[in-house]
Amino acid sequence: DTEVTQTPKHLVMGMTNKKSLKCEQHMGHRAMYWYKQKAKKPPELMFVYSYEKLSINESVPSRFSPECPNSSLLNLHLHALQPEDSALYLCASSQAPNEEYNEQFFGPGTRLTVL
Amino acid sequence: AQSVTQLGSHVSVSEGALVLLRCNYSSSVPPYLFWYVQYPNQGLQLLLKYTSAATLVKGINGFEAEFKKSETSFHLTKPSAHMSDAAEYFCAVSDQTGFQKLVFGTGTRLLVSP
Q: How far is CA B48 from the centre of its chain?
């Protein structure tokens, strides 16, 4: 299995809602990532989990809360989002943190719309 | 900090023509470079990566890239464009303090006309 899966594919939420995005990989990768991608822009790194511990937080607002329950699963909990948070949220994984040529495998993304 | 610059936000070619997408890097040490492709409404797929084993890197779907240190470039080419190549292409460089961060260029949209 060489896939990163993400659910849901699409999500529409109000500013007072609480929702979660889910990401899963079964490649034995020990690093997992959340990116945010606005239309016609490159992905921007949000969080990195390394061996199930948060290793990088790119100064993301606290209304985004990541969680890594185990080495295969990564969640992104959303609360009190703003319309400008509407974007494609991409999950990625890589074999091992801190290794050269650490290529990342991306999921298809969750298209989030905040009303 | 490492960075990459992609020249041209849009490149248009005819089917069967040569594809050339430009990427220049900024790094004082040997960089770790990648090319990714993103089809509409999809995630990113790795096309190829530079590993310093060879300056000419072959990737998937007939793409290749040549690492030129003297020009600080890692341009992506394909001899003959196909309609299915129409997509967004991102050049990226990995930071060398932990190799966990990928810094992407601004992307180049490839348009292929019949």
A: 8
Q: What gap in Å lies between CA B19 and CA B15, rounded to an integer? A: 10
Q: Give the whole-angstrom CA distance, residue B113 versus residue B85.
A: 11
Mutate to test the interface with B, among A38, A60, A103 (most CBs of B within 10 A): A103
Contact flag A97-B45 (C-beta cutoff 8 Å): no
Structure tokens belonging to residue B19: 């594809």
Encode chain A (115 residues) as per-residue pLDDT tens digits. 669 999 999 999 998 899 999 999 999 999 999 999 999 899 999 999 999 999 999 999 999 999 999 989 999 999 999 999 999 999 999 987 767 667 899 999 999 999 9
B106, A42: Cβ pair inside 8 Å? yes
